[in-house]
TrEMBL record:
Protein's cellular compartments: Cell membrane
GO molecular function: ATP binding; ATP hydrolysis activity; branched-chain amino acid transmembrane transporter activity
Protein's name in the database: Sulfate-transporting ATPase
Listed InterPro entries: AAA+_ATPase, ABC_AA/LPS_Transport, ABC_transp_permease, ABC_transporter-like_ATP-bd, BCA_ABC_TP_C, LivM-like, P-loop_NTPase
Sequence ranges assigned to domain ABC transporter in this UniProt record: 661-904
Length: 913
C-alpha cells in the first residue's frame, strides 16, 4: 500500500503538467475549433528556451528565464494563428489539422537541427524537499505542480463561466455568430486563445522537463499524446474533467511502472518496454469506444476534404517517367542512389496515406508504425528463419493487413481528429513497446535482424551488395502499387470509399457498409505501408526501427497533403520531401539528420496550405490544363478524352420486389424529449403516402427511425414479412429501403454520374479485390439510367453537384435514392427550394415511381399542393403523435388538422389546386 501511494504521488507531477498542457488544447479548441497537435512541440521549445537562458551567455535568473520562455511559447501560438490559421478559417478541418502538424514538424526539426537528438537531463526548478506522511515520502515539487494545475483549472473555469471574454469563448465553441453577437471578433478570440494556449503549453513544458528529461523527439510525443488524451477525457470542453484526466494519466503511468515486472511475467516476455506509454492510449481508446457513435448524428456537418484526382492512368507519361527513372537508377550510385531508393519506398508509404486519408477520409498518424511492423515480420522471417524474400514478404504484408484491421476498429466508432489522436497513441505505444524491445526486434548481437542474402526469381537483390537492383525493385513495386491505387480510385469500391469520406450517413443510406469500407481502407493502406516498410527496412544490413517512429508517420501526412492527398501522383511528389529522400539530398550533406529538409518540408506545407489546399498535384493539373488551352497547343496531338458516363439503353419499369412498409407503435426519445410517440403507418406498393405536420412534429425522425439512423425506444418496422427493426441502415437499404435527405447530403467531390452510380452499384465481396486490378468501365444500370431520364439529368452527369442549381441538386439527391430501383422510397421534403414548374415535374416523377415502378413511397413535405396532388393517403403528425390519417379529401376536411397545421379550408383547397 505504501508503495502504491508513493508511486501515485510521484505520478501527480507529470499528471499536473499533462493537465496544464491539455488545458491549452481545450482552450484553443473552444476558441478556434482546432485541435492543436503542436501543443507538445510548443512546450518543448519553451523548455529549451528556459534551459538555454538560465546558463551560459545569458545566465538569467529562473523567474526571468521562465517568464521569457512562457512568453515565447505564447508568441508562437499567436503568430501561428495570425499568420496561418486565420487564413484557413474556411478550410477543411483536415487542412487545419495538417497545418498544426506542419507547425509541429517545423518546431521539432528546428530544435533538432540546433540541439541534435540526445536527451538532456534538466535539474529541478521547483523546491524539492521531502515531507513524510507515515512511510510515504511526498515531494514538495509534486505538490506545487498539483497546486498550479488545480489553481489554473479554477481560473480557467471561472474565466470561461463568469467573464465576458470567457462567455465569448464558450459561445465560440458553439458557433461563431454567437461570438460576434457578444461583440467579439472570432479572429481576435482565436488569437487570444492561441496565445494563452501556447503560454500554458510553455509553462507545462518547463515544469515537466525535469521529470521526463528533454529531447526534441520523444518529449514532444509523450506530452502531446498525454495532453490530447486528457483533453479528450474532458470532451475538449470541460476544464475540471481535463484536470482529472491529466492526473489520472500521470498517476496511471506511474503505477504501471510499479507493476511492470508483474505485467511482464503475466505476458510471459523476457523484456517489457514502454508499458507506461500504453496508459494514455488505452484511456483514449476506452473513452472513444464508450462515447463513439457508429454513424454521425443528423447535426454532424460533413467535412470538406481536399480535391480528388480522377485516377486516370496516362500510360505514355508513366512509361516515359518509369523508363527515365530506371535509367537514372542504373546511372546513380552511392548517396544519390540511396536517396532515390528511399524516395521510391517513401512514395509507397504515401500511397497508403492517399488511400486511407485521401480516398476514405480516415486520418491515421501511424502508417510508418504499420510499415515498420511489416519490415519487422519480414526481416525476422528472412534473417532468423532463413525464408526466401517472396514468401516472407507475403506473410509480412498479410500480417500487417490483419493489424491494419485492428487499427480500423477505433475508426468504426469515431472519425476525424479523434481518430488522429487514437492512431497517434497507438503508433507511439507500438514504437515504445515493440520497436524498442529486443524481445520483438531481435538482438542485434545475435544477428536475428541481420538481412542476409535476398534473392528474387534467381537474382540476388541484396540492397547492400546490389543497391541498383534493390532500387529497381522499389521502382517496379511503386509502379504496381500506384496502378492499383489509381484503379481503386476509378472503381466501384473507390466510389464506396469516397462516399464514406464525404458523408457517412448518405453512404449508409445507399446500402454502403461504412464499417466494411473503413476496415477495407485500413487493410489496403496497411498492405501498402507494409510493402513500403519492407522496401525501406530491408535496404540496410539490419532494420533500423528508428525510421518507423511516430514522426515519420506525422511527416508522411505532411508530405501527402503537400503532394496532393487526393491524387496518386500526389504521393510520389510528397515522397520527394521525405527525410533522406532526393530533396533532402539536394539541401543537406550525407551525414545530416534530415532536420533541414524536414524543416523546409514543414514550411513548404504551410505555404501550400495557404495557397492551394489541394496540394502540388492539383496545382500542376491546373497549370497543365491552362497550357492545354493555349492556341499553340491545339496543333499537338491530344489524348483521348475521358469516357463520358454511359446510360443503359434499357429502361426498367417496376421494382425488383414490390414490398409494403409497415410501422407499428414507433416511439423515439432524445433524452427527455419524445420526438415520435406511438406512430402507426403503412405504405403499400404503388401507393404514395404523405406524412405532414408542423415544424418539429417528428416527421424526419420517423424517416430516421425507419431507415435505422436512430434507434426507437419502442415499436416495430416491417418490410414485407420481415421485421427489420434491429437491422443496420445499410442492411435496410440493401433490402430495398431508400431515402432522400432534407439537407441533400450529396457526395460533393464526385460527379453527378458517380453519385448516381454510388446509389446503384452492386457490390460483391469479390469486387473489393478485383477492383484493385480490373476496375472495369461500367455503364449506369438500366434502373439508374431510368432515374436519370425521369429526372432529366442527362446533361448534368459530368458535372460536380456544386456546379448545379439548388433545384437540380435536389433532383440528383432523389435520383440517387431511387437509382437502384428500391421497393420503398422515403422522400424528406423533396420540393424544398424548387420553383413551381420544378415542383410540378417532381409531382409527376413521384407518381411515376409509385404507379410505373410499383414502389411504396412515403413523402414528407410542407408543399401542400404537391402533397394533395400526389398522395393516395396522408398521415398527419403533431408533437410526435398521429392526429389524423385518411385520403387527401378527408384530411383537407378534418377540423383537427386544419387547427393544427393546414389553416383555413380555403387555403387548403387553394393549395390542392
Ligand atoms: N438528435 C436529436 N437530439 C435531440 N432532439 C432531437 C434530435 N433530432 C430531433 N430532435 C427533436 O425531435 C423533434 C422532432 O424533430 P424532427 O426534425 O423529426 O421534426 P420535423 O417534423 O421533421 O420538423 P421539420 O418539418 O422542421 O423538418 C424536435 O423537437 C427536434 O428538436
Amino acid at each position: 500500500m505504501t508503495e502504491f501511494l508513493q508511486f501515485a504521488i510521484l505520478g501527480l507531477g507529470a499528471g499536473s503538467a499533462y493537465a496544464l498542457l491539455a488545458h491549452g488544447v481545450v482552450l484553443v479548441y473552444r476558441g478556434s475549433g482546432v485541435v492543436n497537435f503542436a501543443q507538445g512541440a510548443i512546450a518543448m521549445v519553451a523548455a529549451y528556451v528556459c534551459l538555454e537562458t538560465l546558463k551560459g551567455e545569458y545566465d538569467w535568473s529562473l523567474p526571468v528565464a521562465f517568464a521569457v520562455a512562457v512568453l515565447v511559447a505564447g508568441l508562437i501560438g499567436l503568430l501561428f494563428q495570425v499568420l496561418v490559421l486565420r487564413w484557413l478559417t474556411n478550410a477543411a478541418p483536415i487542412v487545419r489539422l495538417a497545418a498544426t502538424l506542419g507547425l509541429l514538424v517545423i518546431l521539432q526539426a528546428g530544435v533538432q537541427q540546433y540541439y541534435g537528438t540526445k536527451s538532456i537531463r534538466v535539474r529541478a526548478y521547483l523546491p524539492n524537499d521531502a515531507y513524510h506522511w507515515g512511510d510515504v515520502v511526498v515531494q514538495q515539487d509534486r505538490l506545487i505542480l498539483l497546486g498550479i494545475a488545480v489553481g489554473m483549472t479554477a481560473v480557467l473555469w471561472g474565466l470561461t463561466r463568469y467573464t465576458r471574454v470567457g462567455l465569448a469563448i464558450t459561445a465560440a465553441a458553439e458557433n461563431e455568430r454567437a461570438t460576434a453577437a457578444l461583440g467579439w471578433s472570432p479572429q481576435r478570440l482565436a488569437a487570444l486563445t492561441w496565445t494563452v494556449g501556447g503560454a500554458l503549453a510553455g509553462t507545462a513544458g518547463i515544469l515537466v522537463a525535469p521529470l521526463t528529461g528533454l529531447t526534441p523527439t520523444a518529449f514532444i510525443i509523450i506530452v502531446t499524446v498525454s495532453a490530447l488524451a486528457a483533453a479528450l477525457l474532458g470532451g475538449f470542453k470541460s476544464f475540471p474533467l481535463t484536470l482529472l484526466g491529466g492526473l489520472l494519466l500521470g498517476v496511471g503511468e506511474s503505477l504501471v511502472v510499479l507493476y511492470q515486472d508483474r505485467i511482464r511475467d503475466l505476458l510471459g516476455l523476457e523484456t517489457l518496454t514502454g508499458i507506461n506509454r500504453a496508459v494514455p492510449f488505452l484511456v483514449i481508446l476506452v473513452v472513444l469506444v464508450v462515447r463513439g457513435k457508429g454513424l454521425p448524428l443528423r447535426s454532424h456537418i460533413s467535412e470538406r476534404m481536399p480535391r480528388l484526382g480522377s485516377g486516370q492512368i496516362h500510360w505514355r507519361t508513366l512509361a516515359v517517367v518509369a523508363g527515365t527513372l530506371a535509367v537514372v537508377v542504373i546511372a546513380f550510385s552511392g548517396d544519390w542512389l540511396r536517396s532515390l531508393t528511399l524516395t521510391l519506398a517513401a512514395a509507397v508509404f504515401l500511397l497508403s496515406v492517399v488511400v486511407l486519408t485521401g480516398f476514405a477520409g480516415q486520418l491515421s498518424l501511424a502508417q510508418y508504425t504499420v510499415g515498420g511492423l511489416g519490415a519487422l515480420f519480414t526481416a525476422r522471417l528472412v534473417g532468423q528463419a532463413g525464408w526466401p524474400l517472396i514468401p516472407a514478404a507475403v506473410v509480412g504484408v498479410g500480417s500487417v493487413i490483419a493489424i491494419g484491421v485492428v487499427f480500423a476498429l477505433p475508426a468504426l466508432r469515431t472519425r476525424g481528429v479523434n481518430l488522429a489522436v487514437v492512431t497517434l497513441g497507438l503508433g507511439f505505444t507500438i514504437q515504445e513497446m515493440v520497436f524498442n524491445n529486443p524481445t520483438f526486434t531481435g538482438d542485434k548481437i545475435d544477428g536475428a535482424v541481420r538481412i542476409r542474402e535476398l534473392s528474387l526469381f534467381g537474382f540476388e537483390v541484396t540492397a547492400t551488395e546490389y543497391p541498383e537492383r534493390w532500387a529497381l525493385l522499389c521502382l517496379v513495386v511503386l509502379v504496381l502499387c500506384g496502378l492499383m491505387v489509381a484503379n481503386l480510385r476509378r472503381s466501384r469500391t473507390g466510389r464506396r470509399l469516397i462516399a464514406v469520406r464525404t458523408n457517412e450517413r448518405a453512404a449508409a443510406s445507399l446500402g454502403i457498409s461504412v464499417f466494411a469500407v473503413k476496415i477495407y481502407a485500413f487493410a489496403v493502406a496497411a498492405g501498402l505501408a507494409g510493402v513500403g516498410g519492407i522496401l525501406l527496412g530491408l535496404r540496410n544490413t539490419a532494420v533500423t526501427y528508428l525510421e518507423f517512429n511516430v514522426f515519420a508517420s506525422i511527416n508522411a501526412v505532411v508530405q501527402a497533403v503537400t503532394g496532393g492527398l487526393g491524387f496518386v501522383i500526389g504521393g510520389v511528389i510528397g515522397a520527394l520531401m521525405a527525410p533522406g529522400a532526393l530533396f533532402s539530398r539536394l539541401v543537406e550533406s550525407s551525414s545530416a539528420t534530415g532536420a533541414i529538409s524536414t524543416l523546409i518540408g514543414g514550411i513548404v506545407l504551410i505555404v501550400i496550405l495557404l495557397t492551394n489546399q489541394n496540394g502540388i498535384a492539383d496545382m500542376a493539373a491546373r497549370v497543365g490544363a491552362a497550357i492545354k488551352r493555349q492556341p499553340w497547343m491545339r496543333a499537338l496531338p491530344t489524348r483521348k478524352p475521358v469516357r463520358a458516363p454511359e446510360l443503359s439503353a434499357e429502361t426498367t419499369l417496376g421494382t425488383a420486389t414490390p414490398t409494403p412498409l409497415a410501422v407499428r407503435g414507433l416511439t423515439v426519445r432524445f433524452g427527455g424529449v419524445t420526438a415520435v410517440d406511438g406512430v402507426d403507418l403503412a405504405v403499400e406498393p404503388g401507393q404514395v403516402v404523405g406524412l405532414i405536420g408542423p415544424n418539429g412534429a417528428g416527421k424526419t425522425t420517423v424517416i430516421d427511425a425507419i431507415t435505422g439512423f436512430v434507434s426507437p425506444a419502442a415499436g416495430q418496422v416491417t418490410l414485407g414479412e420481415q421485421d427489420i427493426t434491429g437491422w443496420s441502415t445499410a442492411k435496410r437499404s440493401k433490402g430495398g429501403l431508400r431515402r432522400s435527405f432534407q439537407s441533400l447530403e450529396l457526395f460533393e467531390d464526385i460527379t453527378v454520374a458517380e453519385n448516381i452510380h454510388a446509389g446503384a452499384d452492386e457490390s460483391t465481396w469479390r469486387t473489393w479485390l478485383t477492383d484493385l486490378i480490373r476496375p472495369g468501365h461500367h455503364p449506369l444500370s438500366p434502373s439508374a439510367s431510368t432515374a436519370v431520364r425521369d429526372f432529366e439529368l442527362e446533361g448534368d452527369l459530368g458535372s460536380l453537384p456544386g456546379e448545379l442549381s439548388y433545384g437540380r441538386r435536389r433532383l440528383v439527391g432523389i435520383a440517387r435514392a431511387v437509382a437502384s430501383g428500391p421497393s420503398v422510397v422515403l422522400l424528406d421534403e423533396p420540393a424544398a427550394g424548387l420553383d413551381d414548374a420544378e415542383s410540378r415535374e417532381l409531382a409527376l416523377c413521384i407518381r411515376q415511381l409509385a404507379v410505373e415502378r410499383n414502389a411504396a413511397v412515403l413523402l414528407v413535405e410542407h408543399d401542400m399542393g404537391l402533397v394533395m396532388s400526389t398522395c393516395d393517403r396522408i398521415v398527419v403528425l403533431e408533437a410526435g403523435r398521429v392526429i389524423a390519417a385518411g385520403t387527401p379529401d378527408e384530411i383537407a376536411a378534418s377540423p383537427a388538422v386544419r387547427d393544427a397545421y393546414l389553416g383555413t379550408e380555403d387555403e387548403t383547397t387553394e393549395a390542392a389546386r
